[in-house]
Amino acid sequence: MISKVITGKSFSGCCRYVCKPAERAEILYVHGVRESDPKQMAEDFEQSRRLLPNKHRAVFHGILSFHPDDKVTNELMANLAQKYLQEIGLINTQVAVVKHTDKAHPHLHIIANLVNLNGKAISDSWLGLRGKKAAQALTQAHRLIVAERRPRKQPGRVLSEEETVKEEIHTAIATGRMLCHSFEELQNWMVRHQIDVMFKRNRAGEICGISFRKGKYAFKGSSIHRAYSFSGFQKTFGYRPNIRIEQAPRLRRGLRR
Predict the structure, then answer these.
(1) Whose CA is closest to 178, among 186, 190, 168?
(2) Run of H or E residues at 95
(3) How many domains does the chain have?
(4) What percent of the chain has pLDDT over 70?
């Protein structure tokens, strides 16, 4: 599965493009907007955008493309789209998920409002990268076929060994968060991927931080993604007295970040 992200200013133009013509577009899921007509849908998006008038680029347009051999039902597509939005931080906001049938491979268009239902701005920083990582994790979690992009005419910078390991840890955590139901399950998941989970304690012996190590490289959870801090995992799984944090080792001084 491949993710592409576009941000823009016009809900009217985006809704019209995504939902018309009706012969190629099938609405799979909506939240907070009407689906009967693209004009009404755009009006609903604009009404929420007006809660934050200074947010000019409030249109999120995401495209999820699947491999032609992937057997994905409408139900699975809608479910993947919602997990994708949650993973990149687009929650508590208006959404429309639309399947297009004009190409050989299955693909989705996702419209979301970067002004949430409380009138607060949703960060659009690194949305493209966040979308790419979420798509990679979902592809692995749901055992989809890896769809490869065509090579760039001007290849980008080659990742260093340390950056490559950091990407591998990120993908493992993102996938584990979707598959695991408890923090203990996540720890076992990381061990199976040869990744050590380590904890930092304060003077009172309470856990106050988390890091991940693979091979000779280790990273604070929050440096991989802000949701991967210890407090972030507490929010995801809730506090459980029986998780194995009491046996976890302390972080050593001089840990490579």
Answers:
(1) 186
(2) strand 95-100
(3) 2
(4) 88
